[in-house]
Design goal:
Blueprint: H1 4-8, E1 14-20, E2 23-31, E3 34-41, E4 49-52, H2 58-65, H3 70-74, E5 78-81, H4 84-95
Antiparallel strand pairs: 1-2, 1-5, 2-3, 3-4
Length: 99
């Protein structure tokens, strides 16, 4: 489970990411005190569903994460540098209409 403390420790140029065959969720550090979560869920036989939190502090983002499917909370979150592919995913997810 992702904690407020782990979110707060996220470096400016890094992301936390949770991925498996049915979902991808990324948390990015967007300003000194704010973070943003975006995700794509791939329900069997349906169009991807996209979600975006908007800028939030770590406490609110942790609450937002609680609204996502249980699977997100039980999977491992990996921290890594923000790379071009992840940056493109974030942009694409934020601008794509939700289904």
């Amino acid at each position: 489970m992702l904690t407020v403390q782990r979110i707060n420790r996220l470096a400016q140029d890094h992301v936390l990411e949770c991925v498996d065959a049915s979902l991808r969720v990324v948390i990015a550090h967007t300003s000194p005190s704010h973070f943003e979560g975006v995700g794509e869920f791939y329900p069997h036989g349906a169009q991807p569903q996209r979600v975006a939190s908007g800028p939030m502090n770590a406490d609110l983002l942790a609450q937002w994460l609680e609204t996502l499917p249980e699977k997100c909370r039980s999977l491992t979150w990996a921290e890594h540098p923000l790379d071009p592919k992840t940056r493109a995913f974030i942009g694409r997810t934020k601008t794509a209409p939700s289904v």
